[in-house]
Design a protein that fits this description.
The chain has 12 helices and 12 strands. With 329 residues, the protein is an alpha/beta fold. Helix 1 crosses helix 2, helix 1 (36-48) packs parallel to helix 10 (281-289) and helix 5 (163-170) runs parallel beside helix 6. It comes from Streptomyces diacarni.
């Protein structure tokens, strides 16, 4: 086995990227205090390991994340990096969520700021972070398609949308991938969303692969996770006990439980690209080393028996955030 990153194409129309991707939210306070210098080292460690796909959002740290990535990319060839950017999630000065804005004129405005902060002349993938219920998806995708025609964007993505929305969007312009939570503990997307994506030639970039640390982490939520139903009371006790038996299989594979979880998502299809957050270079090393795991059919069956679909208790987000997810309607 080797730890060389595999490559995958994001759908039939998207760019070729490395898998896993680096999720950058945690570098801008998404999971607690951060250090910019270590954040820059973390991004560079991923790129030095051969990684190409950086996932960010213009609202990560209210623009901080894009500035940090710009620093990390200094001296790198633009064509060596695939920048995937989410937009539309509104934030107040204190970071309080303020809904979503995916109006066409807002698309153009958000894009101009992202290009400036990142210091690039185009984004490789651009996507609304959530469906704006006040704006038809056709209008939002049409606005991004205009930016594709002008060369400011290369490919269009979606995030946390349902099967019907994916179909409507794909009827307007090619969609390269849908970013959505997918893990051993979150598998409802297997019912409709994944089949529709495969029918239409749309890739999946899977985030939440470690279920916010329930799989392979300490299981102890930080302040921001304590409000999540899966981390509360009896739910937390049940979920921690559910994934505990994975340690034995991981040990047999000379791997961590986190690496097992990454390999499990990657094993669900060539169209699956796990997006893994890291805040330190050593976490990048652990993440990229997961690619050496090759799970057999017996391994997958064993995992299924240990962690059956639907066995986790509690919703993946608090009720107000769940209400924003078109994928959960």
């Amino acid at each position: 086995m080797t730890s060389t990153l595999r490559t995958a194409r994001l759908g039939d129309s998207g760019p070729t990227v490395t898998s896993p991707a680096l999720g950058c939210l945690g570098l801008s306070g998404g999971y607690g205090p951060t250090d910019d210098e270590e954040g820059v080292r973390t991004v560079r460690a991923y790129l030095d390991a051969g990684g190409t796909l950086l996932d960010t959002g213009d609202f990560y740290g209210s623009g901080h994340n894009e500035w940090l990535i710009r620093r990390a990319l200094s001296g790198r060839a633009r064509e060596d990096v695939v920048l995937s950017v989410k937009f539309g999630a509104l934030r107040g000065p204190d970071g309080t969520p303020g809904g979503n804005d995916a109006r066409p004129r807002s698309v153009h405005n958000f894009l101009s700021y992202s290009l400036q902060r990142l210091g690039v002349d185009h984004l490789d993938v651009y996507r609304p972070a959530r469906l704006d219920p006040a704006v038809p998806i056709e209008d939002t995708v049409g606005a991004i398609a205009e930016m594709v025609e002008k060369g400011y964007v290369r490919h269009i993505g979606l995030s946390e949308v349902g099967a019907d929305t994916i179909r409507r969007a794909a009827a307007v312009a090619p969609i390269c991938d849908v970013q959505i939570e997918y893990s051993m503990l979150s598998r409802d997307v297997e019912d409709e969303i994944v089949p529709v994506c495969r029918e239409l030639g749309v890739g999946i970039t899977a985030y939440g692969v470690l279920s916010s640390g329930l799989i392979g982490g300490s299981g102890t939520p930080g302040a921001k996770r304590a409000a999540f139903p899966r981390f509360q009371g009896a739910n937390l006790e049940h979920n921690a006990a559910l994934v505990a038996p994975l340690r034995e299989l991981a040990a047999e594979k000379n791997a961590t439980v986190a690496q097992l979880a990454i390999a499990w998502v990657a094993a669900q299809g060539d169209d699956m690209v796990p997006v893994i957050g890291a805040r330190r270079p050593e976490q990048v090393a652990t993440m990229t080393d997961a690619t050496r795991l090759s799970l057999t059919g017996d391994d997958l069956a064993r995992i299924e028996a240990l962690v059956p679909r639907g066995a986790a208790r509690g919703a993946r987000y608090p009720a107000p955030l769940m209400a924003e997810l078109d994928s959960e309607r």
